[in-house]
Amino acid sequence: QQPVQSPQAVILREGEDAVINCSSSKALYSVHWYRQKHGEAPVFLMILLKGGEQKGHDKISASFNEKKQQSSLYLTASQLSYSGTYFCGTERNSGNTPLVFGKGTRLSVIA
Amino acid sequence: DGGITQSPKYLFRKEGQNVTLSCEQNLNHDAMYWYRQDPGQGLRLIYYSQIVNDFQKGDIAEGYSVSREKKESFPLTVTSAQKNPTAFYLCASTFRGARTDTQYFGPGTRLTVL
Predict the structure, then answer these.
(1) B102 at the A interface (CB within 8 A)?
(2) Looking at residue A53, what is its pLDDT?
(3) For testing the chain B interface, which of A101, A103, A105 should be mutated: the one with the most B CBs within 10 Å?
(4) For B71-99, b where at least 16 C-beta lie within 10 A, e where not — what string?
(5) Does B98 sit within 8 Å of A98, measured CB to CB?
(6) CA distance A15 to chain B (A)
(7) Residue B102: which of A44, A87, A97 has the nearest Cβ?
(8) pLDDT per residue over A41-100, tens digit each?
(9) Residues forming a β-bridge with A105
(10) Which residues contact B52 (CB under 8 A, 6 or more apart)?
(11) Which of A46, A93, B43, B91 is the most exposed place for a label (fewest CB within 10 A)?
(12) Cβ pair A91:B99 closer than 8 A
């Protein structure tokens, strides 16, 4: 039930774009995205609900394709501060239950 | 300021000892969670609680125990039965525990077994 994230790691130069994908083998109601700096707590970025909505957070946006059971996180014109590990979290079943997280995508932005 | 506090930040334990990790929140959140994080493994759920005096096992509950006597507090005990306890432990909370609720994390406790 754990969502699969790809790629596992990516290195960017400042100003480049990146896409991080999150796929599930089961139907999804929502997808949550978090970013974690090394040794720190994960920080919430956004929630996407089914309906194909797209959200944005500064220069970070995301889409949710419920038919394909996947979500993508788009980072445009990357900054050094974008470095960290990105996690997607999905619900376990139809009830109010904790999220199950992917293994993460490590993003490194270099000057 | 509202938030989640975890203490201590770093903890060292000898093999065979039980140790309790503290988690307190003043966000008035109903649901609280404990996760374990190992390199390359993401966040794995240990226990969670959606109301006071009730809690459920997560995916890796063996060797751990919790209590939820107060809404604000959800301590985690790592027992000597946990075979490989060295890890980064994160506590989190949400308002109702619903799928649309944002999950907030504490700063974490890094446990090292010597």
Answers:
(1) yes
(2) 64
(3) A101
(4) ebebbbebeeebeebebbbbbbbbeebeb
(5) no
(6) 27
(7) A44
(8) 999 998 888 765 666 667 899 988 888 889 999 999 999 999 999 999 998 666 667 889
(9) A86
(10) B68, B69, B70, B71
(11) A93
(12) yes
Residue of chain A nearest B94, judged by CA positions: A98
Are B50 and A96 within 8 A, CB to CB?
A: yes
Determine contact, residues A71/A45, Cβ cutoff 8 Å.
no
Output the tens digit of pLDDT for each of chain B's 114 residues. 679 999 999 999 998 899 999 999 999 999 999 999 998 888 999 999 999 999 999 999 999 999 999 999 999 999 988 889 999 999 999 988 776 788 899 999 999 998
Asked if the model's pLDDT at residue A22 lies above 90, the reply is yes
Amino acid found at B66: V
Reply yes or no on whether the pLDDT at A39 is more than 90: no
- What is the rounded distance in angstroms from the CA atom of residue B100 to the CA atom of residue B94? 10
- The token duo for B58 is 């997560």
